[in-house]
Amino acid sequence: MTSSPAANETPVDGLRCLHTRPSSGDLTFVFVNALTGSTDQWEAVIAPALRDQGYGTLSYNFRGQVETEYGAEDALDDAQIVRDLHRVVSERVTGRCVLVGLSIGGLFAARAMKAGLACEGIVLINTLRKPGLALDWTNEAVFRASKLGGSQLVMDLFLPMLLGPEKLSEMRAACLGDSAYTPLDATSGIYRLIKRSRDVDWEFAWSNIECPVLVVTGLRDRVFLDRNAVEEIKAEIADVEEIVLADAGHLIPIEQPEILAGALQSFAERLSSQPHPAVETDAS
Questions:
Q1: What is the DSSP code (8-state) at residue 5?
Q2: If 0-12 CB within 10 Å is exposed, 13-18 middle and 19+ buried, where does residue 74 land?
Q3: Mean pLDDT for all residues in the chain
Q4: Do residues 168 and 251 touch, judged by C-beta distance below 8 A?
Q5: pLDDT digit string, tens, across residues 232-251
Q6: How far apart, in Å, do the first and last CA atoms of the chain sit?
């Protein structure tokens, strides 16, 4: 196997964007971050593995995440994130694409599709959840912890419930240290993203997704995973399959990247063998 070509970094309207065109065929995987994620989680293993197989890849950071441009006038809310996703794909991807969203990134991908972004398929990694008191409580708790002690306090509090044992053991040295907690800067992009995330509406008509959907679930996620909610939402989607990872938690791209890369390749092969027309829906 030849080594994967490096992704070309070209900003799109102030957004950090790493893009490589397909070397075989015309399918590009577009990765949509979690709220506190970055291109690093995709580019370490997953994107290079897919490029090795000839697929195109596109990873980018939300406005407000690292190495992006934003100002006081930018809302940094879900509507702006969806618009930016549409802009990035429209300006960079010329062929077919598969949207791959982690956590809330999957919701943003689904909303972009509903607003008119054509895609061959969607991959939802630990995305499926229903609105309610528990979700609202968790989102508020993450914001409050960030406000008090920054990302270090959030990790110390939540990682044991978010990660599988292998990755948790690996990250133990970086957590629970002697350093004092530092509140997030209230003017920073990540603070504003987390603050606005409390207002995201998780009500979504999943039945409107007509393209094939791959759901990837980590059973070690003890914060967001509700199996009943996942099963109920899956039942609303016309063409859906699920991969369940028993030893992974919420952050599968960094916990089991090789397995995820293989699952994405298999999904792409399925799309090629049983082609579905890319679905375009209006914003209404």
A1: P
A2: middle
A3: 93
A4: no
A5: 999 999 999 999 999 999 99
A6: 46
Cα separation, 179 vs 126, in Å, equals 31
In Å, how far from its chain's centre is CA 149?
24
Which position has the token pair 């989680």?
Answer: 41
Residue with structure tokens 């960030």?
146
Three-state DSSP at 98 gives strand
Token look-up 């040295």 returns 173
Here the tokens at position 168 are: 């948790």
Crossing angle of helices 189-197/133-162, nearest 10°? 130
- Of 6, 11, 44, 50, nearest to 30 (Cα)? 50
Q: Determine the Cα–Cα distance for residues 210 and 114; give it in Å rounded to an integer.
A: 10
Nearest to 123 by CA among 223, 27, 220: 27
pTM over 0.90: yes
Q: Are 125 and 216 a contacting pair, CB within 8 Å?
A: yes
Residue 112: Cβ within 10 Å count:
25
Closest CA to 192 of 183, 200, 184: 184
List Cβ neighbours of 82 (8 Å cut-off, separation of 6 or more).
Answer: 108, 111, 112, 115
**Helix H or strand E encompassing 53:** none
